[in-house]
Amino acid sequence: MFTKIQESKWLKAILFITTFAFVGTGFVALIVYKLSGEISGVAQVNGIDITPQEFMYEVNKVEAQLQNQGQDISAFRKIIYSQVLNNIIDRELLYQFAKKEGIDAKDDEVKMVIVSIPAFQKNGKFDQNLLINYLKSAGISMQLFEEILKKQLTVGHIVSMLKAGFYITDYEVKTILEKYFSTINGEILIIKPTVKVSEKEIKDYYEKNKDKFAEKEGKKIKVYKIPLSEKEKAQQIFTSLKSGKKVEEKAYFDGLYLKGETTNLPKEVIKALNNLSENSKIEFVKTKDAFYLVYFEGTKSIPASFDKVKSKIENILKAEKERKIAKDIKQKLEKEKSSSLEEIAKKIKNASVKIEKLNNVKYTQLQIKYFINLEDIKDLIKKGKGISKPLLAGNKVLVVKIDKINPPSKEEYEKIVKSIKPQIENQKFQDIIDMLVNKLRDEAEIKINKRYLQ
């Protein structure tokens, strides 16, 4: 097996790692694929279909994980779908290449992994009923479950082999540490746009975005009350509601129901109201006094009052205006050259400007204090001494002038090297993978069924 790897192109072989990292950590890069051809599945990778069952199985796992963390996924479900599909495509690409290289997890290995999964064990022993129940709830077959595990295990084998042959020298570690853990002396120019928001702008935003300020959410319902002596009439109304036909009978209750509110409806009807949803729109309830036909028309949000959210909206609109103006300022400054921060500050209009001293400040401290993104920090490290390009940091524009760079002391270096070295190794390894993985994608023929991403 090792001979096969040595005979193959290193460029392709190392590509296995990225998808394994994706599968293990849930991180997924957004990739632009070729969208072409009509396909029956969710996607096709070099002629191999990715089925809806495999796709939805992975989607459900991600959604369940996010929901367990208390996150509302409704707003970014499309993003989840896109990222999960990219993940599966990467896994399929890497698995196909592994098979060409003669590397493939054995069926016995897959079965051993399944019986050792804690979720399928009872009192320390494998329980097949737990596995069967899991497959039923997940909506996948045993065959598909084994196929997914086999692909993951295969990629895992390649990762282990490649990782074993990877190393980073002490010189590389020293060079990186000196860059990232050096302190700097200099100045930073902070430019914040000055903006105003009118009462009219705030009111207009509120009217157009009331749904964003929902204070409560209720159910829009209709309740028909029919005497017990008119059972046939009650059944006719139930049939009409179920088939979507218009009901001539005047509703006993027609309005918004909020859970927990006091109503004159019987407790049996209240219980039915709480059970109503898009999947269960009708309830037929019999009490000692009457029949009740309860119909769910949908949900409706009740927004907070304007006065309650006025200051919040004002801050939102201010931030939007500030970001827009900051972007314009940044673009203008990029076209100009200046010899000092004071000279730059004089050119700024409609914004507050301030110059702060930087005394023995670490790059990490600079990043946290001024909300500078990581890529800009990397550019500052690379540039070294001098005046930086203008940096966009939220609603501000920053310009950094570095006069002196102080490397970490010997004592500080020895203190941090042990804990930081593994992170540096992982980062270097990932940097190599990021560069190489694109080649495997470029060589593939990938088709995506866009309907599944809508």
Automatic annotation (TrEMBL):
Domain PpiC: 197-310
Keyword Transmembrane helix among record annotations: yes
Positions in coiled-coil regions: 316-361
Gene3D superfamilies tied to this protein: 6.10.140.970, Porin chaperone SurA, peptide-binding domain
Record-level Gene Ontology MF annotations: peptidyl-prolyl cis-trans isomerase activity
UniProt subcellular location: Cell membrane
Annotated GO CC locations: plasma membrane
InterPro entries xref list: PPIase_PpiC (IPR000297), PpiD_chaperone (IPR052029), Trigger_fact/SurA_dom_sf (IPR027304)
Membrane topology: Single-pass type II membrane protein
Assigned keywords, A-Z: Cell membrane, Chaperone, Coiled coil, Isomerase, Membrane, Transmembrane, Transmembrane helix
Transmembrane segments: 12-33
Main location: membrane
Superkingdom in the source lineage: Bacteria
Family per similarity comment: Belongs to the PpiD chaperone family.
UniProt-listed PANTHER family: PEPTIDYL-PROLYL CIS-TRANS ISOMERASE D (PTHR47529), PERIPLASMIC CHAPERONE PPID (PTHR47529:SF1)
Protein name (Swiss-Prot/TrEMBL): Peptidyl-prolyl cis-trans isomerase D
Biological source species: Hydrogenothermus marinus
